[in-house]
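Reproducibility note. Readers wishing to regenerate the assembly model reported in the main text can use the exact inputs given here. Chain order matters: entities are listed in the order in which they were concatenated for prediction.
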Amino acid sequence: MEVKPPPLRVTAAAPPPAREKLADAAYAALKASILEGLLPPGVETAEQAIADQLGMSRTPVHEAALRLQHEGMLQVLPRKGVRVLPLDPEDLRQTYEVLIALEGAAAALLAAQAHPAALAAMERATAEMGQALAAGDRAAWAAADDRFHRALVEGCGNPKLARLAATATDQAQRARALTAARRPEPVLSAEEHGAILAALRAGDSEAARAATARHRARASAEILSVLRG
Amino acid sequence: MEVKPPPLRVTAAAPPPAREKLADAAYAALKASILEGLLPPGVETAEQAIADQLGMSRTPVHEAALRLQHEGMLQVLPRKGVRVLPLDPEDLRQTYEVLIALEGAAAALLAAQAHPAALAAMERATAEMGQALAAGDRAAWAAADDRFHRALVEGCGNPKLARLAATATDQAQRARALTAARRPEPVLSAEEHGAILAALRAGDSEAARAATARHRARASAEILSVLRG
DNA sequence: CCATACCACCTTCCATACCAGTATCCCCAG
DNA sequence: CTGGGGATACTGGTATGGAAGGTGGTATGG
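Running the prediction on these inputs yields the following structure tokens for the assembly.
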């Protein structure tokens, strides 16, 4: 089945008007609820119920559910409802492998160019992580860590890569939120971030990639061991 | 805005039933039409018109359009229609960087494990590429090349990575289809594939990653130079 | 003849209605 | 009491109509 070329009207590129849509609101609300753990894994609920809570109809909720399904956060089961996917260790392993690939590439790209602003942001985030750790504020630590990685992928000059990495990070964040209490203090992250920064400053792409990969691989192993019990 | 935990009903994991939906058909039809060039870049058309051609309503077409938009093939412009995105060289560069990262990681993973079936498939594909090239059959060559890369990412043991790589490959395929006529004979690919296979057989992850990255980087540079004129 | 303002059409987005399918529960038979 | 069969009700997938909004065309005034 093919779509035949309709009456042509070639246009130049145009900036997206970006009106806020209800579907976007539903997406954000659902995602936030899942990431915060308000909707624990395994929960099943009907689209209609979600629509009622959000004060909209099923249509935008359905669209949001499909998007989240695409990202692997939930599953829409016909005649069953939408189900928040449990954190499958195997799934998480795959996600971390993707994340290692993407962030490693981002680090290599960033090392190959001068980008003082990104490096500064990453240094600031690392410093804040140290402060938060000293203060025992795990939430602040996680936020600063998130800023570090976000600055890394957003500074590499590849928005597509950054977007994919952000999606994978969202998944990993879920796992970190659920295992935070059972993991030891994240004292290693700061020095690993330091190693990444050093490689970036030196402009050594391979070292930057390797340091980033090591950092994520260690975190992955740690979380997986906790998750697997 | 948050979704409060509704009446819980925790269930065990279940395999997806995977009924075929009209939305999937619309997605496939649209994507094929774009990849084949039937819907050239820049074209604007209404969702209604597509729905009419496919003999369905606007709802599944809209869903398909959103999916394609997510993949970067088109753009849904409110009150304008869906627009097939032009092949922006900058965009393609980003896509290839993602592809290099993902396929490089896949090669490294594959090298670290024994997977004779995948290697055999890749060797077969490479041989078929040689035959197609000798016969002057560009289409068969492209198909065999596609099989090579598909076997690589699907053999690495990470379906998530494979899916992302497949999406990126689709984008690259569009560019290859549009520039095929203006590019030289792809004689280098076969030996580059050979280098990748050698590294995989040797179990050398780093060499496999490097060889894969080099292969894609060369193709990327070639296509981009043609595309930029 | 050109510029401007108004109007009408066409678009997506959302709400609502319909449909088909299946899981569940109840009832009856053994 | 237990097992099976069927009716029922609830679900998501799809269709459709209405509303909001923007664009292009046209008409009018300078």
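We highlight two features of this model. Chain B has a mean pLDDT of 88. Residues 89-227 of chain B form a domain with the Four Helix Bundle (Hemerythrin (Met), subunit A) fold (CATH 1.20.120.530).
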